[in-house]
Specification:
The protein is of the alpha/beta class. The protein folds into two domains: about 45 residues, no CATH class; about 260 residues, Acetylglutamate kinase-like (Carbamate kinase), CATH 3.40.1160.10. The protein has ten helices and 14 strands. It is globular.
Length: about 300
């Protein structure tokens, strides 16, 4: 027991520590040890994970992995997509879907469906599933608390937002309270006359901006392919910023991979590492954090 207390004292920076312990003394030092341990847990490195609806199949274990990570004390914020379901809903209503550079062209009719699907159906479903597995999570959108403040990105694609400011206070409040935030990618635009407008924000872009604002240690995108592919269709293990830019400009990366790579390029100027991995694989997230995951790494 004496050697244990001496170790605690050494960890506290005490060069000499003489013990003549009463029961109160032992309780005090055990209490200090618990506080030190708790402080270590609270300093767990932050990870932002973007999950897409297309990755959540029958073999997917994303929700189970997230619960496991939370119970291990890992600080995690989740941003989700839902593009496939939005397209399905629009099709049922006879509304055509069009993409420009991987971004959905969004008019008023499309936006109404986007908000209903992302902030309503998808967000609530993810929160319900994680909670049912024993996790603690709360859903919100980028509109809540002014989390994602945005402006019109390009009139050509309509009500699509470019994030101009991130206020992570709502996210940090949930993390401090022991909850995992699950965020729907919607932005809030305040016009000059004080009126508000909800904007559709690409989920990859939203996740990158949140990762930067939270000073995340790692930014992970779960997708429905094995990683970034080269011209021969083989997975590229690692990319520099320039190499990723060349894939985009050369047309090797196309469609939905373009905003993913652009989000990673934005993130890695502030975040140590971005990863694009296959979210359809069982235990993909746990393997990733154990250092045995497969996919593509983008570094600055």
């Amino acid at each position: 027991m004496h050697s244990y207390f001496s170790t605690v004292a050494a960890n506290l920076g005490c060069k000499r520590f003489q013990f003549k312990l009463t029961d109160h003394g032992r309780i005090l030092i055990i209490g200090i040890s618990i506080l030190l341990l708790k402080g270590t847990i609270l300093k767990q490195k932050m990870i932002v994970i973007k999950i897409g609806g297309s990755t959540l199949g029958s073999q997917d274990t994303t929700f189970e992995d997230l619960v496991t990570l939370q119970k291990q004390g890992q600080q995690v914020a989740v941003v989700h997509g839902g593009g496939a379901l939005i397209t399905d809903w629009l099709k049922k209503q006879g509304v055509a879907t069009r993409f420009v550079r991987g971004l959905r062209v969004t008019d008023e009719a499309t936006l109404a469906v986007v908000v209903a699907v992302l902030a309503g159906v998808v967000n609530s479903d993810i929160v319900a599933k994680i909670n049912s597995l024993g996790g603690k999570t709360v859903g919100l959108s980028g509109v809540d608390g002014g989390l994602l403040q945005a402006r019109i990105q390009d009139p050509e694609i309509g009500l699509v937002g470019e994030v101009v400011k991130v206020d992570v206070k709502p996210v940090k409040a949930l993390l401090r309270a022991g909850f995992m935030p699950v965020i729907a990618p919607l932005g809030l635009m305040i016009t000059k006359n004080g009126s508000s407008q909800i904007l559709n924000v690409n989920a990859d872009t939203a996740a990158a901006e949140i990762a930067i604002a939270l000073k995340s240690e790692k930014f992970i995108l779960l997708t429905d392919v094995a990683g970034v592919l080269d011209k021969q269709g083989k997975v590229i293990d690692s990319l520099t910023i320039q190499e990723a830019q060349d894939l985009i400009s050369g047309g090797v990366a196309a469609g939905g991979m373009v905003p993913k790579l652009e989000a990673c390029l934005r993130a890695v100027r502030h975040v140590p590492m971005a990863r694009i991995i296959d979210g359809r694989k069982a235990n993909a997230l746990r393997d990733e954090l154990e250092g045995i995951g497969q996919g593509t790494t983008i570094r600055s």
